[in-house]
Amino acid sequence: MNQKRVVVAMSGGVDSSVTALLLHSAGYDVVGVTLRLYTDERTDAMGRANRCCGVEDVEDARRVCQVLGLKHYVINAEKEFDEHVINYFVSEYERGRTPHPCIACNDRIKFDFLLKRAFVWDAEYVATGHYARRTTDAHGASHILKAVDPRKDQSYVLFGLTQAQLAHTLLPVGDYTKDQIRAFARQAGLPVADKPDSQEICFIPTGDYRQFVAQRVTPKPGLIVDTDGKVIGQHQGIEAFTIGQRRGLGSAGGTPRYVIALHPEDALVVVGPEEALSQPSLTISRVNWLAGTQPAQPIQCTVKIRYKASEAPALVTPHGDTAEVQFEHPQRAVTPGQACVFYRGQELLGGGFIEAPRAAVTPLVIALAAR
After folding, report:
1. 65 is catalytic
2. Catalytic residue (choose from 52, 53, 102, 105)
3. DSSP H/E element including 356
């Protein structure tokens, strides 16, 4: 029998391990691959549970492949990860934006770098442990649907995939709940069946992204101003701030203030009352439509403006590689750099990256410069 070969991206966790199990059980020729993405050189990093590509994770992936009788390889992708994920992550904070590194990792590493390697190995597919579902219609077009388990759905981070990539992508765990995935692992005797899920950014095991970024940038001190242009404090670098932030603004008592805008060119952090965080609309760039073509007319759908946000009804008007999103109800803390992703029912339609509303900040810059 001529089995179809699939390369499974194995992180050493239960989801990617069961991905390999399910595909192996379905008759695929499965090859397990663990990508080495980042090395933490600090001496205190040894043994941390969430270290990216730690020795323990590589060993867990290898042991799973041994149990299943699969080949397992480790590929060093640190150079690519540094260029496309870490550099992006740091530079976005320098620009006053809040990045989502998992999206960059999917777009540039798992479904680009790894997929190209898979083709070299004569594999037809790359598979990951993402909780989402891929379907194919009668015309051969691919679609992504939300996971069966709404608590674990990860379709949000897959909006950047193209039809060419989707045609060679498998997402088997999206058809099951997390409890079922762990049960499958136990039944198969996989050593990771009860391994805890990682909760942090994989290359920042401490969870302190500000410290990580601060070690890689030259901070530019500046002013904290309110919506009237009044200076209320100073800061050591805008990379330590994000939209909606309340902590670290140097104000005590009175009406709570929140970060409502960041202006990196002038090193300004703009703060205001909570109601100033509500936005009726937004603009997005680098828009990708999973169908491969943009809609000819504005579409009524639901959108998510961050990974853990609830979906909100909105009208999306496409303009080439940009789009305007008009919310049915204003949304809180619209954050430049985050993804705004579109859904119609269970189906992921596409998405793009939120841009800053520049006009709201410009009058403040002018007022400060005139002083």
Report:
1. no
2. 105
3. none
